[in-house]
Design brief:
The protein is an alpha+beta fold. The protein has helices spanning 4-8, 12-17, 19-25, 30-38, 57-70, 72-88, 93-99, 219-222, 225-253, 269-301, 308-335, 346-357, 366-375, and strands at 108-121, 124-134, 142-151, 154-155, 165-171, 176-178, 192-202, 206-207. The radius of gyration is 22 Å and the shape is globular.
């Protein structure tokens, strides 16, 4: 059977052609979502016993990168929908069976940031709050939301000083979607807010993601969620950067000539130097991402835990890759000159999409300091892991 990466190849030209529509309508069209489902994009990491593909981590990242090269919002949406399977794996066996009762091609959505509260009640929890950045929420059939645990109106604290949190799972019919996604970049991801007000979540649909092991015992789920989650953001960034390089190459191949210049842009030594530098930086960023993903996958397949430095490096990789991708897109945009300032320019959309990507928490530099401390053999708080 052809891999998902092979299956999506025929979809990429059409997705690129419809990028402007996706951005204008602030959502992925129904027929595109259906085609992505048929290609296996949303069952890549679903358990095989429920009809999932159980793709390797590097395979999944390549799918996300290729789709993001075609259109950043599409790649982002698939990355979040597919990686929701990694969250579902932490719930009870009965909850997982319920999630996949209609088949593996489901779209999951949610938020790991604890923006709500959960109060224990007989048999479950009462959940209230509002969660932002819930990509593809209009498509989701199941939602997960992280909550701080509240007892007697006080947030419960763990021994190491952080709030106690739990993840809650709800079917789509119980969720209120709030149209908040009016943004500059990645407009087509429909990453609206969702909210609950006193919704009941039974115990079997609640889980602890921090410090617990997933219910599903396959290699992809043995890689800690926080360690691998940011790699999908990095794959989106790489795809956007690759698309920017390709679009700039097409522009200069068409004979673009800068104002007041006697030579074509492609003949400029300055252009060639900067284009070459951007291209090589892209290759370096891609090598970093896939080297780290292959290493993590190899350890997972062997059931061999990674060291703290290896895990910290894996967590920091998205920040380094996304920063490199942003520099590459900035270079492509600048080299394109006045052509790129128009909203119809693909490079204009690439610029906005990549700088929306850099705002994700996984793209922040805080993870680099942990790597530096471990390289310097400085003890860090292992509770971070």
């Amino acid at each position: 059977m052809a891999t998902t990466f092979v299956q999506i190849q025929g979809l990429l030209p059409e997705i690129t052609k419809r990028s402007e529509q996706i951005e204008r309508e602030r959502r992925i069209p129904d027929d595109v979502i259906a085609a992505l489902q048929q290609a296996g994009c949303f069952r890549m990491f679903a358990p095989a016993n429920y009809g999932g593909i159980e793709a390797t981590l590097p395979e999944g990242l390549r799918v996300v990168e290729a789709l993001s090269c075609a259109d950043g919002a599409t790649g982002w949406t698939v990355s979040q929908g597919a990686s929701s399977q990694l969250v579902f794996a932490y719930f009870s066996e009965s909850a997982i069976a319920e999630i996949y009762s209609a088949g593996p091609d489901l779209f999951g959505a949610g938020a790991v940031a604890p923006k709500g509260q959960a109060v224990a009640q007989d048999g479950g929890w009462r959940v209230s709050g509002q969660w932002p950045f819930v990509t593809g929420c209009e498509r989701a059939s199941w939602f997960y939301v992280q909550c701080v645990v509240v007892e007697n109106r006080r947030v419960q604290m763990l021994p190491h000083g952080t709030p106690a949190v739990r993840m809650m799972l709800f079917p789509a019919g119980e969720v209120q979607i709030i149209d908040t996604w009016h943004v500059v970049g990645l407009q087509g991801t429909a990453s609206h807010d969702i909210s609950f007000s006193g919704a009941f979540c039974p115990n079997e649909r609640s889980a602890n993601l921090l410090g617990s092991k997933p219910t599903v015992n396959t290699p992809i789920f043995s890689i800690p969620l926080l360690d691998q989650g940011g790699l999908f953001i990095a794959a989106v960034a790489l795809g956007i950067a690759q698309g920017a390089i390709e679009e700039l190459a097409e522009l200069v191949a068409s004979g673009k000539r800068p104002a007041f210049s006697r030579e074509r842009l492609a003949q400029s030594a300055v252009f060639q130097d900067q284009m070459g530098g951007a291209y090589l930086e892209l290759q370096g960023a891609r090598a970093l991402l896939y080297t780290q993903a292959e290493s993590a996958w190899s350890a997972a397949a062997k059931r061999s835990p990674q060291t703290l430095l290896e895990r910290a490096t894996l967590r920091a990789t998205p920040a380094a890759v996304t920063a490199a991708a942003a520099r590459i897109v900035d270079t492509a945009y600048t080299l394109a000159g006045g052509t790129a300032v128009y909203s119809r320019s693909p490079l204009q959309r690439r610029l906005r999409d990549i700088h929306a990507t850099t705002q994700h928490v996984y793209a922040g530099r805080h993870s680099l300091g942990i790597v530096g401390a471990l390289v310097a053999r400085e003890k860090i708080d292992e509770a971070l892991f």
